[in-house]
Specification:
binds 2'-monophosphoadenosine-5'-diphosphate; Rossmann fold; 2 domains; alpha/beta; single chain; 6-stranded parallel β-sheet
Length: 281
């Protein structure tokens, strides 16, 4: 019997998870069909309940459901609990358990594809939404020395920073405006964009949060946006002589970690990368 897996989100028109997850199942000769499940909020609880059927292997979760879905699950992994967000649902002895592999994916991509160990670094995170929250958790957990959160809406950055008052790293919030933003760029070893600026099909398509003259050539600029592969921000970073890392590796590593949770097998990373790149070509 073919088992079902899929991703809950809304809308889901541009998700490439079905492409690289299906490639992984096929490569491993696992009889699983991975689908896009575009589900609006009012239908989410009913759709999640279906996962309890034996025909279902598990699921991914994306915007806007990562927080809300917690209340429809039986248990949360401690990291998902701390983050307050779930991107992977695993069935364990008939129970639905929520995990979060986003933070892992972010640091794995940084280490493997960016050749960057965040330990001891001075970091600038752009944005203060759900993706920023996972990034700040991941980076503070990986031992950064200091972290500045810059956001258009300063109050949101301040609220996020306040969660890390007891952390070993110094975490502060600034507005996404000169001169604070320029000052934060000047000391940043690593800049991570978690906003949707530059994302294809978004209202901020073609926009960049920073330009070449504010980026130091010594910085690594990491854009979590994966479509397009070269975002306006990464183009500015290259013009400044900085190193760059796009968002595709994080997307693949978070998905690979989900695959491993569902199957107990090592994920075929190269196959997943190839399928993801083909989906975006
Ligand atoms: P996600 O869960 O993907 O992080 P989100 O919670 O909607 O999504 O957060 C989006 C982030 O991108 C926010 O930091 C948002 O800034 P505000 O908090 O001020 O809304 C930021 N963002 C989106 N579009 C932006 C734009 N055009 N300029 C600046 N920041 C933008």
């Amino acid at each position: 019997m073919t088992r079902l897996a899929g991703i809950f989100g809304y809308p889901l028109g541009h998700s490439i998870s079905p492409r690289f997850q299906q490639a992984a199942f096929d490569h491993c000769s696992l009889d699983v069909s991975y689908k896009a499940w575009p589900v609006a909020t009012d239908r989410l609880e009913a759709e999640v309940r279906k996962l309890r059927d034996d025909g279902y292997l598990g699921a991914n979760v994306t915007v806007p459901h990562k927080e809300r879905i917690r209340s429809y699950l039986d248990d949360l992994d401690p990291l998902a609990e701390a983050l307050g967000a779930v991107n992977t649902i695993v069935k364990e002895d008939g129970r639905l358990v929520g995990y979060n592999t986003d933070a892992h994916g972010l640091v794995e991509a940084l280490r493997k594809d960016g050749a960057c160990d965040p330990k001891g670094l001075s970091v600038l995170v752009l944005g203060a939404g759900g993706a920023a929250r996972a990034a700040v958790f991941a980076l503070v957990g990986a031992g950064v020395a200091s972290l500045t959160i810059a956001n258009r809406t300063l109050a949101r950055a301040e609220l996020l920073a306040s969660e890390f008052e007891a952390a070993s790293a110094a975490v502060e919030a600034v507005p996404m405006q000169e001169p604070a933003l320029v000052g934060a760029c000047k000391k940043a070893d690593l800049i991570v964009n978690t906003t949707s600026m530059g994302m294809r099909h978004s209202p901020a398509e073609g926009e960049t949060p920073l330009n070449a003259k504010t980026i130091r050539s010594q910085s690594l600029v990491y854009d979590l946006v994966y479509n397009p592969a070269e975002t306006p921000l990464l183009a500015e970073a290259k013009a400044a002589g900085a190193k760059t890392l796009g968002g595709l590796p994080m997307l693949v590593y978070q998905g690979a970690a989900s695959f491993e949770l569902w199957t107990g097998r090592p994920a075929p990373i190269d196959v997943m990368f190839e399928a993801a790149r083909r989906a975006l070509a």
